[in-house]
Design goal:
Structural class: alpha/beta
Distance between the termini: 41 Å
Number of strands: 18
Strand order of the largest sheet: 8-5-4-3-2-1-18
Oligomer: single chain
Bound molecules: zinc ion
Shape: globular
Helix content: 25-40%
CATH class: Alpha Beta
């Protein structure tokens, strides 16, 4: 009887240990924090990597890339990830600073991992702007390898490895386009993880995303701004992103500092300033949402820069303290992370 009791105790302890080891976890990493198409001080272009799993696999069973700006593959390499390990790429919108690194990602998959599964690419369906041009994720992905086809590289490298698709990297993309609306919809899932999307305003076809997992949730706002494109308005932030972020643990959002506004004389055209969310308004929105973390990314201007592309930074360069203070001025009482490349937040925190 005593032996049986001991055996049961050992089994219960083993079960408890297994349960502890398998605790779910989520890691959100900024793969690039440059705001806009200019290049500054080696920053990679906009992107966020979300990894989910449990302690036994270092939160690394599902790997999702949100936007893929310049240098994304380089930042992934610093995390010891190769493009073929991504399960899906999501685009908030098709500005070059959010997609510049995508050709590199898919070309590397085509080159080194021609036998891997197709890459899910999730983005809005074609969206017609008021000025009649069309933002087309379908065209973008369909033609992503055209320059390499035209240069002859695809044909040349195919002679070295016949398993590489003759059609180039576009052949390994599985496009999952959705019609973005003001109501969140699930656009991708893997087991207990879901990704939802909602329409948001910046340029035509812009969408924001939310990842929900048993370890927590994260919203990736992208460059979203308010539907009302200039003051007077209650906020520069997006009402749809705010709805999406209700109860989320982490908000990752592009941020512009208020001093780049028309009043301070940066020279930035008002419409370009107004289509972003200000740091202060993001602080207010994050507080209303109940978020624990606000990750500021795509910083305009970058930390330490005296210029943002062709425009000046009034009063000189900004520090991390300036950005943190601006978010706190908005009333945010949680943790502000002023984004630098490869900064991460883990849930649960260690
Ligand atoms: Zn941008």
């Amino acid at each position: 009887m005593r032996r049986l009791t001991q055996l049961i105790c050992i089994m219960l302890l083993a079960l408890a240990a297994t349960t502890t080891i398998a605790a779910p976890c989520l890691i959100v990493t900024l793969t690039g924090t440059q705001g806009g198409p200019s290049a500054y001080n080696g920053l990679a272009g906009s992107g966020t990597l979300v990894r989910y799993g449990d302690d036994s696999n270092h939160c690394n069973a599902v790997r999702l890339q949100f936007d893929a700006g310049r240098g994304t593959s380089m930042r992934l390499s610093q995390l010891e990830l190769i493009p073929a390990q991504l399960h899906a790429v999501f685009f908030t919108h098709l500005h070059s600073d959010h997609v510049d690194g995508f050709a590199d990602l898919v070309q590397m998959r085509w080159h080194f991992n021609p036998g891997s599964n197709k890459l899910d690419v999730v983005c809005s369906t074609d969206a017609k702007a008021a000025s009649a041009h069309v933002m087309s994720c379908r065209n973008f992905t369909t033609h992503i390898g055209d320059a390499y086809l035209q240069s002859g590289e695809i044909a040349q490298r195919q002679t070295e490895d016949k398993t590489r698709a003759a059609a180039g990297p576009a052949a390994s993309i599985n496009l999952l386009a959705f019609a973005a609306t003001d109501t969140a919809q699930v656009v991708w899932r893997s087991g207990e993880l879901t990704v939802s999307a909602i329409r948001s305003t910046h340029i035509a076809g812009h969408a924001s995303y939310r990842v929900d997992t048993p370890a927590g949730s994260v919203v990736i706002g992208g460059d979203a701004g308010n539907d009302t494109d200039a003051p007077p308005r209650l906020s520069s932030t997006s009402a749809q992103v705010e709805a999406l972020a209700a109860g989320a643990d982490i908000i990752v959002h592009s941020a512009i500092h208020p001093l780049m506004g028309p009043a301070a004389g940066s020279g930035m055209p008002a419409p370009i300033f107004y289509r972003q969310s200000t740091v202060t308004d993001l602080g207010s929105m994050a507080q209303r949402s109940g978020a624990k973390y606000l990750l500021l990314t795509h910083l305009i201007p970058p930390l330490g820069a005296t210029r943002q592309g062709g425009w000046s930074v009034p009063g000189g360069s900004l520090t991390e303290t300036h950005y943190r203070q601006a978010a706190q001025d908005g009333g945010f009482g949680g943790t502000v992370v002023v984004g630098t490349d490869l900064v991460s937040v883990r849930l649960p925190a260690k």
